[in-house]
Specification:
Helices cover 33% and strands 18% of the residues. The protein is built from ten helices and ten strands.
Length: 333
């Protein structure tokens, strides 16, 4: 219910903590006074231990009142099971003990360490890109100071912003670098005004407010919305090919088993030629079906058409999502 309403991970976990005896520091309270060391694979941007996995060994600054406020802000109170709503309301009245707070003795011997996160995944992709194109003299520029673009928020809105920003800065991609990103280019760092080919690697996680009845996930919806946005900007893209790949690091982007998808300016007209209406699929939140059907029909029509839906299978870990944007100066032959 909360996810369908577009709840972000912070809102989800505030509610989860107050419906569990283990989350929100509960595990540390049960384990005290034992020494507890928590090794964390972070799936939360910012790496707040109180949010990751709902912070089972971390002090919880939130309250039952905060959980109720999150539910009401999302407008899903009437849709919650009656027992859940009553439990949260009773907790807000002080009828249930709240989660242990900072300063509690439960954490006197509790330590946490982040062993991997989204930033490390972004850095790994950056190094892989550098390694694969080092023969042509690739260079890398680290994070910018101002987040001109970010992989956070409503997926289709992020896609629109991302494409708009990219189309406005095709020859100056370094201006777009947000925190937690890298630019890989075929030019040295002091000559990044107009590279022939460049790639930006972003990390984060979007959300989807579900209005339709289709299948999909945040990455596939972002890619579909990006494909539509690219199709609407042929003049701005003149002379450039822009490709956007976005995927979940755990290999599971919502329902269906796909990790994400790859979009470019040819996606929407290619789909239309195969009888698919990209706009209708997006309106129905049916991005999984769009990419699956597009690949199936393309495979029977064009022998050299690569898959656009990304299917990796479960990776066994989760450090949020990655988005790779490639810009290439293009001359029609």
């Amino acid at each position: 219910t909360l996810m369908h309403a577009g709840a972000n991970i912070h809102q989800l976990n505030i509610v989860r903590k107050h419906l569990s005896q283990v989350k929100g520091g509960g595990l540390a309270r049960f384990a005290a006074p034992a020494q507890v060391l928590t090794l964390i694979l972070s799936d939360v941007i910012g790496d707040d231990p109180a949010i990751i996995t709902s912070g089972p060994t971390t002090p919880d600054p939130s309250s039952y009142a905060d959980a109720l406020a999150a539910v009401d802000r999302l407008g899903v109170g009437p849709q919650l099971p009656t027992a859940v709503r009553r439990h949260l309301e009773a907790g807000a009245r002080g009828e249930h003990p709240d989660t242990p707070k900072p300063g509690s003795n439960a954490f006197a011997h509790s330590l946490q360490a982040i062993v991997a996160n989204n930033a490390s995944a972004v850095a790994t992709v950056q190094q892989t890109l550098l390694g694969s194109v080092r023969a042509v003299g690739a260079n890398s520029v680290g994070s910018g100071q101002r987040p001109a673009i970010a992989l956070y928020g409503e997926a289709r809105e992020v896609a629109h912003t991302l494409v708009t920003q990219m189309c406005s800065n095709l020859e100056h991609p370094a201006l777009l670098l947000p925190n937690n990103s890298f630019l890989v280019s075929n030019l040295p760092p002091d000559q990044l005004a107009a590279p022939d080919c460049w790639a930006i690697v972003l990390g984060g996680e979007t959300s989807v407010t579900v209005h339709g009845s289709g299948r999909g996930g945040r990455n596939q919806e972002l890619a579909l919305a990006a494909a539509i946005a690219l199709d609407q900007r042929p003049t701005q893209l003149a002379g450039y090919r822009l490709t956007i790949a976005t995927f979940a690091t755990d290999g599971d982007d919502g329902s269906g088993g796909a990790a994400g998808a790859i979009a470019d300016a040819d996606t929407v007209p290619r789909a239309a030629a195969l009888g698919l209406d990209a706009h209708a699929y997006l309106a129905a939140n049916d991005s999984y079906s769009f990419w699956q059907t597009l690949d199936q029909r393309a495979a029977t029509t064009w022998t050299d058409q690569p898959r656009q839906q990304i299917i990796t299978g479960p990776s066994g870990t989760n450090v949020n999502d990655l988005c790779i944007i490639v810009g290439q100066r293009w001359v029609e032959s």
